[in-house]
Amino acid sequence: GAVVSQHPSWVICKSGTSVKIECRSLDFQATTMFWYRQFPKQSLMLMATSNEGSKATYEQGVEKDKFLINHASLTLSTLTVTSAHPEDSSFYICSARPRGGTQYFGPGTRLLVL
Amino acid sequence: AQSVTQLDSHVSVSEGTPVLLRCNYSSSYSPSLFWYVQHPNKGLQLLLKYTSAATLVKGINGFEAEFKKSETSFHLTKPSAHMSDAAEYFCVVSDPGGNTPLVFGKGTRLSVIA
């Protein structure tokens, strides 16, 4: 089946620094990629949707200047958490979808901001 | 608008006994429905999906789900639970074309007792 990877799987950073998370579709071209955030024992919350070559569409309440999303190619999207603070600590999951296909989820990245 | 209600936040079963995880949906059109499983600190794995073909859908690891339009339900079942089935399960709804973001239920945590 289709594989989506995320890197890194774990990241710990100091408050005020920026963190970049990569999401790659390994064996298909992802015309659309999604970024989700999951708090402990809660469901996934969609943060933004990005189509290759276009600006991301952010969900209500998600700061686009805080969570920078780039989808520069059909196999790579990045999420940069700028000036991270402890409240940004969470599990970030990406998914990728080929044109007309099903979403495939990455393994997630756990971010801890100290 | 679409929504999903997972009726139980936690289900506990003994190993070898049947599993039933309940899901009701609301959609203004014939939806696509999915069940995903998430093991601790892992991403989401697709168990099965319904896309307006057969109403009884068979998935991986012995799971199956039945789409019942009259009851707006898509309950997940397995005849015999295994210890490795202990995880978080999410029921998800989408429009048939996959053009709108996935809508997640709040999740059901399945515990399997030896």
Walkthrough of the structure:
The complex is a heterodimer of chains A (114) and B (114). Chain A is mainly beta and 114 residues long. In chain A, 0% of the residues lie in helices and 53% in strands. Chain A contains no helices and eleven strands. In chain A, the strands form two sheets. In chain A, strands 2, 4, 5, 6, 9, 10 and 11 form a seven-stranded mixed β-sheet that branches. Chain B has 114 residues and is mostly beta strands. In chain B, a hairpin with a 5-residue loop joins strand 7 and strand 8. At the A-B interface, strand 5, strand 9 and strand 10 of A face strand 6 of B.
Distance between the termini of chain B: 41 Å
Biggest interface and residues each: A-B, 23 and 18 residues
Q: Tell me, briefly, the overall form of chain A.
A: globular
Order of helices and strands of chain B: EEEEEEEEEEEE
Structural class of chain B: mainly beta
Mean of residue pLDDT of chain A?
A: 92
Largest sheet of chain A: 7 strands, mixed
Q: What structural class do helix, strand and pairing data of chain A support?
A: mainly beta
Oligomerization: heterodimer
* Helical content class of chain A: under 10%
β content of chain A, as a range?
A: over 45%
CA radius of gyration of chain B: 13 Å
Mean pLDDT of chain B: 92
Radius of gyration of chain A: 13 Å
